[in-house]
Amino acid sequence: MPHRIAVLALDGLLPFELGIPQRIFGLSRGCEPRDEGRKLYEVVTCSVRTPGPVRTDADFTITVERGPETLATADTVVIPASYELGPVYAEGRLTDELAAAFAHIRPGTRMVSICTGSYVLAAAGYLDGRPATTHWSSADHFQQLFPKVRVDPDVLFIDDGDVLTSAGVAAGIDLCLHIVRRDHGTAVANDVARRTVVPPHRDGGQAQYIQRPVPETQFATTTSARTWALGRLDRPILLRDMAQQESMSVRTFTRRFREEVGVSPVQWLTRQRVERARQLLESTDLSIDQVARDAGFGTATSLRQHLQAALGVSPTAYRRTFRAGQA
Questions:
Q1: Edge-to-edge strand order for the sheet containing 157-159?
Q2: What is the pTM of this model?
Q3: Kind plus residue range of the DSSP H or E element containing 97
Q4: Each residue's pLDDT tens digit in the chain (327 positions)?
Q5: Under a CB-based contact definition with an 8 Å cutoff, are residues 137 and 95 in contact?
Q6: Residue 253 in contact with residue 259, Cβ under 8 Å?
């Protein structure tokens, strides 16, 4: 049976965010010969009340045909943002209605929030002692309201195993694509991204979207340097080489790069090499040594260290997860 995802529609919801899970998970189809075209997820929408109208932040309401008992059938529960969270946002506690709805959720169910949907997860206790994120503009308030949560305001999303949180609005797309990739591999996630006309992976974090009080006028960007680097990940790349692609000093290039991408050039380059290694591990039969060389890590030992730091698994374990039957 397809993995069942229940999307909880709360009053004051953002229609765009409500539609993200249906779009991303609904488009996911099997790519392997044994399951090509098979629907991988079943996405259903439910309310905290009996079936009926749910207010949105737009000039229309939506009709939800399922009630909170649907949560008992879910393998994953997704909570989009709402502008009418009431005591959840003001006091950090669930309403009686929400608490009754959450009582239906089975232990072990994967929990996901989009934007300020994280307030609901935090109020329900799912984020205590865990890393989490939310929209950057709410990060300080969120941390004050839920001091037990380890808030990271700079990332687009956080995967903490059975609980995942994303930053604002479009970061929900990034998170849902990440879940598809985690569940079914790169090929499926990339297919969904192409059909949705969005990048399968965005660089950097929320820092690149935060407005500075006095933004510096800029005409040059670091795009050419990034394109140049992506074309030679298998070879040594020095910071000064990247800076030369933009005719900048290393210091100026590093500052400009961080402003545009949200991380340092070295951090970005490591991430790209990790992504390249993941792609090769999932889609080829190359040896671990060859994957390490093609991704620019040089040795299998270096690849193992970087993959362990980024994903918490070894190259062999990662391949076994996403490429059944491969050594």
A1: 41-47, 3-9, 76-79, 110-113, 163-166, 157-159
A2: 0.69
A3: helix 96-102
A4: 899 999 999 999 999 999 999 999 999 998 777 777 889 999 999 999 999 999 999 999 999 999 999 999 999 999 999 999 999 999 999 999 999 999 999 999 999 999 999 999 999 999 999 999 999 899 999 999 999 999 998 888 999 999 999 998 889 999 999 999 999 988 899 899 889 988 777 765 665 455 444 334 444 688 899 999 999 999 999 999 999 999 999 999 999 998 888 889 999 999 999 989 988 998 899 999 999 999 999 999 999 999 888 877 889 988 887 664 333
A5: no
A6: no
Contact 208, 261 (CB under 8 A): yes
In 269-282, which positions are buried (b, 16+ CB within 10 angstroms) versus exposed (e)? bbbbbbbbbbbbbb
Both tokens of residue 207? 């820092």
C-alpha torsion 159→299→302→230, nearest 10: -50
**CA 324 → CA 28, 144, 243, 284, distances in Å?**
19, 44, 41, 12
CA 307 – CA 319 distance, rounded (Å) = 12
